[in-house]
Amino acid sequence: MTRLRLAIIISGRGSNMDAILSAAQAPDYPAEPTLVLSNRPDAQGLDTAAAQGIATCTIDHKPFGKNREAFEREMDKVLQAASIDIIALAGFMRVLTPWFVQRWSGRLINIHPSLLPKYPGLHTHQRAIEAGDDEAGCSVHWVTEGVDEGQVVAQARIAIRPGDTPETLASRVLPQEHQLYPEALKLACMQIIERQ
Questions:
Q1: Which pLDDT does position 60 carry in this prediction?
Q2: Which of 61, 112, 141, 178 is catalytic?
Q3: In angstroms, what CA-CA distances link 83 with 6, 33, 61, 77, 163?
Q4: Ordered domains of the chain (ranges, CATH)
Q5: I want to staple 72 with a disulfide (CB 3.0 to 4.6 A). Which of 32, 100, 127, 192 is the partner?
Protein backbone atom coordinates (compact mmCIF):
# COMPACT_ATOMS: atom_id res chain seq x y z
CA MET A 1 0.00 0.00 0.00
CA THR A 2 1.18 3.50 -0.89
CA ARG A 3 1.89 5.69 2.12
CA LEU A 4 2.50 9.36 1.45
CA ARG A 5 5.33 11.07 3.32
CA LEU A 6 3.60 13.52 5.67
CA ALA A 7 4.91 16.71 7.24
CA ILE A 8 2.90 18.29 10.06
CA ILE A 9 3.53 21.99 10.63
CA ILE A 10 2.70 23.37 14.09
CA SER A 11 3.17 26.43 16.28
CA GLY A 12 2.12 25.10 19.69
CA ARG A 13 1.16 22.04 21.67
CA GLY A 14 0.09 20.06 18.63
CA SER A 15 -3.08 18.39 19.89
CA ASN A 16 -4.32 17.82 16.31
CA MET A 17 -0.83 16.53 15.47
CA ASP A 18 -1.22 14.01 18.31
CA ALA A 19 -4.48 12.77 16.81
CA ILE A 20 -2.85 12.33 13.40
CA LEU A 21 0.18 10.53 14.86
CA SER A 22 -2.11 8.11 16.69
CA ALA A 23 -4.16 7.37 13.57
CA ALA A 24 -1.02 6.92 11.46
CA GLN A 25 0.10 4.00 13.63
CA ALA A 26 -2.46 1.83 11.80
CA PRO A 27 -0.63 -0.17 9.10
CA ASP A 28 -3.24 0.73 6.47
CA TYR A 29 -3.17 4.50 7.13
CA PRO A 30 -2.17 6.25 3.87
CA ALA A 31 0.17 8.83 5.45
CA GLU A 32 3.51 8.20 7.12
CA PRO A 33 4.48 11.01 9.52
CA THR A 34 8.01 11.86 8.44
CA LEU A 35 8.63 15.37 9.79
CA VAL A 36 7.17 17.78 12.32
CA LEU A 37 8.19 21.36 11.63
CA SER A 38 7.54 24.41 13.81
CA ASN A 39 8.12 28.15 13.55
CA ARG A 40 8.47 28.30 17.34
CA PRO A 41 11.43 26.68 19.12
CA ASP A 42 9.32 26.28 22.30
CA ALA A 43 6.40 24.47 20.62
CA GLN A 44 5.43 21.58 22.91
CA GLY A 45 4.48 19.43 19.95
CA LEU A 46 8.15 19.12 18.95
CA ASP A 47 8.89 17.15 22.13
CA THR A 48 5.83 14.95 21.57
CA ALA A 49 6.92 14.12 18.02
CA ALA A 50 10.55 13.51 18.98
CA ALA A 51 9.42 11.13 21.73
CA GLN A 52 7.68 9.08 19.03
CA GLY A 53 10.83 8.95 16.91
CA ILE A 54 9.66 11.45 14.29
CA ALA A 55 12.19 13.92 12.89
CA THR A 56 11.58 17.50 14.03
CA CYS A 57 12.81 20.84 12.79
CA THR A 58 12.42 24.43 13.96
CA ILE A 59 12.67 27.40 11.64
CA ASP A 60 12.09 30.47 13.79
CA HIS A 61 10.20 33.07 11.76
CA LYS A 62 11.42 36.00 13.87
CA PRO A 63 14.87 36.50 12.27
CA PHE A 64 13.12 36.92 8.90
CA GLY A 65 11.18 39.98 10.11
CA LYS A 66 8.44 40.87 7.66
CA ASN A 67 9.93 38.77 4.84
CA ARG A 68 7.46 35.89 5.05
CA GLU A 69 8.52 34.40 1.74
CA ALA A 70 12.18 34.14 2.84
CA PHE A 71 11.01 32.22 5.94
CA GLU A 72 8.84 29.94 3.80
CA ARG A 73 11.69 29.29 1.36
CA GLU A 74 13.67 27.90 4.30
CA MET A 75 10.69 25.72 5.25
CA ASP A 76 10.39 24.57 1.65
CA LYS A 77 14.08 23.50 1.56
CA VAL A 78 13.55 21.27 4.61
CA LEU A 79 10.31 19.83 3.21
CA GLN A 80 11.88 19.09 -0.17
CA ALA A 81 14.93 17.49 1.48
CA ALA A 82 12.56 15.17 3.40
CA SER A 83 10.74 14.22 0.14
CA ILE A 84 7.39 15.28 1.60
CA ASP A 85 4.25 14.34 -0.36
CA ILE A 86 1.58 16.08 1.75
CA ILE A 87 1.54 18.77 4.45
CA ALA A 88 -0.99 19.05 7.29
CA LEU A 89 -1.11 22.42 9.02
CA ALA A 90 -2.06 21.73 12.64
CA GLY A 91 -2.25 24.93 14.65
CA PHE A 92 0.30 26.73 12.47
CA MET A 93 -0.32 30.37 13.38
CA ARG A 94 0.99 32.05 10.23
CA VAL A 95 -0.72 33.06 7.01
CA LEU A 96 1.16 31.51 4.10
CA THR A 97 2.25 33.53 1.07
CA PRO A 98 0.97 32.83 -2.46
CA TRP A 99 4.47 31.55 -3.32
CA PHE A 100 4.34 28.72 -0.76
CA VAL A 101 0.67 27.91 -1.42
CA GLN A 102 1.30 27.59 -5.17
CA ARG A 103 4.43 25.48 -4.59
CA TRP A 104 2.44 22.98 -2.48
CA SER A 105 -0.91 23.33 -4.25
CA GLY A 106 -2.98 20.15 -4.03
CA ARG A 107 -0.70 18.77 -1.28
CA LEU A 108 -1.49 21.19 1.59
CA ILE A 109 -4.43 20.92 4.02
CA ASN A 110 -5.49 22.84 7.10
CA ILE A 111 -8.03 22.50 9.90
CA HIS A 112 -10.23 25.47 10.79
CA PRO A 113 -12.66 25.81 13.72
CA SER A 114 -15.80 26.76 11.81
CA LEU A 115 -18.19 25.31 9.26
CA LEU A 116 -16.57 26.87 6.22
CA PRO A 117 -17.37 28.89 4.18
CA LYS A 118 -18.75 30.53 7.33
CA TYR A 119 -16.30 32.46 9.51
CA PRO A 120 -12.90 32.28 7.88
CA GLY A 121 -10.13 33.85 9.93
CA LEU A 122 -10.20 34.45 13.68
CA HIS A 123 -12.78 34.43 16.52
CA THR A 124 -14.91 31.81 14.82
CA HIS A 125 -16.80 30.58 17.89
CA GLN A 126 -17.67 34.09 19.04
CA ARG A 127 -18.90 34.98 15.56
CA ALA A 128 -21.09 31.85 15.34
CA ILE A 129 -22.68 32.61 18.74
CA GLU A 130 -23.22 36.29 17.92
CA ALA A 131 -24.86 35.35 14.61
CA GLY A 132 -27.37 33.16 16.48
CA ASP A 133 -26.29 30.00 14.65
CA ASP A 134 -27.75 26.64 15.77
CA GLU A 135 -24.54 24.76 15.10
CA ALA A 136 -20.78 25.16 14.88
CA GLY A 137 -17.95 22.81 14.11
CA CYS A 138 -14.72 22.42 12.21
CA SER A 139 -13.55 21.95 8.64
CA VAL A 140 -10.50 20.44 7.00
CA HIS A 141 -9.82 22.15 3.68
CA TRP A 142 -7.28 22.35 0.89
CA VAL A 143 -5.15 25.48 1.33
CA THR A 144 -5.45 28.12 -1.39
CA GLU A 145 -4.23 31.71 -1.58
CA GLY A 146 -7.39 33.08 0.06
CA VAL A 147 -7.49 32.58 3.83
CA ASP A 148 -9.68 29.54 4.63
CA GLU A 149 -11.19 29.63 1.13
CA GLY A 150 -10.06 26.25 -0.25
CA GLN A 151 -12.36 23.33 -1.04
CA VAL A 152 -13.58 21.52 2.07
CA VAL A 153 -12.41 17.92 2.46
CA ALA A 154 -14.64 17.08 5.46
CA GLN A 155 -16.53 18.73 8.33
CA ALA A 156 -17.79 17.87 11.82
CA ARG A 157 -20.80 19.61 13.38
CA ILE A 158 -22.02 20.16 16.93
CA ALA A 159 -25.02 22.02 18.34
CA ILE A 160 -24.55 25.44 19.90
CA ARG A 161 -26.17 25.26 23.32
CA PRO A 162 -28.03 28.07 25.11
CA GLY A 163 -25.53 29.92 27.27
CA ASP A 164 -22.50 28.76 25.27
CA THR A 165 -19.51 31.09 25.39
CA PRO A 166 -16.67 31.08 22.85
CA GLU A 167 -14.65 29.13 25.45
CA THR A 168 -17.26 26.42 26.13
CA LEU A 169 -17.94 26.04 22.42
CA ALA A 170 -14.22 25.78 21.65
CA SER A 171 -13.82 23.11 24.33
CA ARG A 172 -16.51 20.99 22.61
CA VAL A 173 -15.28 21.61 19.06
CA LEU A 174 -11.68 20.57 19.83
CA PRO A 175 -12.46 16.85 20.39
CA GLN A 176 -14.36 16.96 17.09
CA GLU A 177 -11.21 18.33 15.43
CA HIS A 178 -9.20 15.43 16.85
CA GLN A 179 -11.63 12.93 15.28
CA LEU A 180 -12.05 14.80 12.00
CA TYR A 181 -8.47 15.64 11.06
CA PRO A 182 -7.09 12.07 10.78
CA GLU A 183 -10.13 11.01 8.73
CA ALA A 184 -9.95 14.06 6.45
CA LEU A 185 -6.19 13.60 6.01
CA LYS A 186 -6.89 10.04 4.92
CA LEU A 187 -9.37 11.30 2.31
CA ALA A 188 -6.89 13.92 1.10
CA CYS A 189 -4.16 11.30 0.76
CA MET A 190 -6.46 9.08 -1.26
CA GLN A 191 -7.20 11.96 -3.62
CA ILE A 192 -3.46 12.56 -4.13
CA ILE A 193 -2.77 8.85 -4.67
CA GLU A 194 -5.58 8.64 -7.24
CA ARG A 195 -4.09 11.61 -9.13
CA GLN A 196 -0.63 10.01 -9.34
A1: 97
A2: 112
A3: 9, 12, 22, 10, 48
A4: 4-195 (3.40.50.170)
A5: 100
